[in-house]
């Protein structure tokens, strides 16, 4: 009797494991690195060995087509929203007299766009952001306001985190 109960318990555990494995959503990790070229790391032909990134690339999806900006904050805004930096409100990184008050140069993520974190959070993902944010300090434009449940952000070079 004990043997049958053990077998029944094991079969339930393995069935539950198989069911959860088949229905789990993939883990998604997006890595953004400022001032790095496309082919600087080994998964994309670089000479610098990056074995952990290589393993992630071999077992995941490699993104190879992306429009970017030569400036860090606009590039992050473009990746996180799928829009141009101007559509996202990050047309630049500094206030210039000729851009003050102009749409597209708010220097923060605006309500005109949705971030991938907001979409993932709405889909039930647990979203986390760590590192440099530099996409707005005002209410409505912080990482937690833009879809990240957990944030360990450097808000723009400052030492505090939100």
UniProtKB/TrEMBL annotation:
Statement: the UniProt record of this protein carries the keyword Cytoplasm: no
Q: How is this chain modified after translation?
A: The conversion to 3-oxoalanine (also known as C-formylglycine, FGly), of a serine or cysteine residue in prokaryotes and of a cysteine residue in eukaryotes, is critical for catalytic activity.
**Molecular function terms from GO:** arylsulfatase activity; metal ion binding
Q: Which residues are reported to carry the modification 3-oxoalanine (Ser)?
A: 72
**Which Pfam family is an annotated match for this chain, by its short name?**
Sulfatase
- Entry annotated with the keyword Membrane: no
Name the enzyme group at the top EC level.
hydrolase
Sulfatase N-terminal domain location is 26-154
This entry's Enzyme Commission designation comes to: 3.1.6.1
Family from the record: Belongs to the sulfatase family.
Question: PANTHER family annotated for this entry?
Answer: ARYLSULFATASE FAMILY MEMBER (PTHR42693), ENDO-4-O-SULFATASE (PTHR42693:SF53)
The protein, known as: Arylsulfatase
Question: Native species of this protein?
Answer: Salmonella enterica subsp. arizonae
Phylogenetic placement of the source organism? Bacteria, Pseudomonadati, Pseudomonadota, Gammaproteobacteria, Enterobacterales
């Amino acid at each position: 009797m004990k043997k049958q109960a053990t077998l029944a318990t094991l079969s339930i555990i393995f069935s539950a494991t198989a069911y959860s494995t088949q229905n789990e959503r993939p883990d998604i990790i997006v890595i953004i690195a400022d001032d790095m070229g496309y082919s600087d790391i080994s998964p994309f032909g670089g000479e610098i060995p990056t074995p952990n990134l290589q393993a992630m690339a071999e077992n995941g999806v490699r993104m190879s087509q992306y429009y970017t900006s030569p400036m860090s904050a606009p590039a992050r805004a473009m990746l996180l929203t799928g829009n141009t930096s101007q559509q996202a409100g990050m047309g630049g990184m500094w206030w210039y007299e000729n851009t003050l008050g102009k749409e597209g140069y708010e220097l923060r993520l605006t309500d005109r766009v949705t971030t991938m974190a907001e979409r993932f959070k709405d889909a039930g993902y647990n979203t986390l952001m760590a590192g440099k944010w530099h996409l707005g300090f005002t209410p409505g434009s912080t990482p937690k306001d833009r879809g990240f449940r957990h944030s360990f952000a450097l808000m723009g070079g400052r030492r505090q985190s939100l």
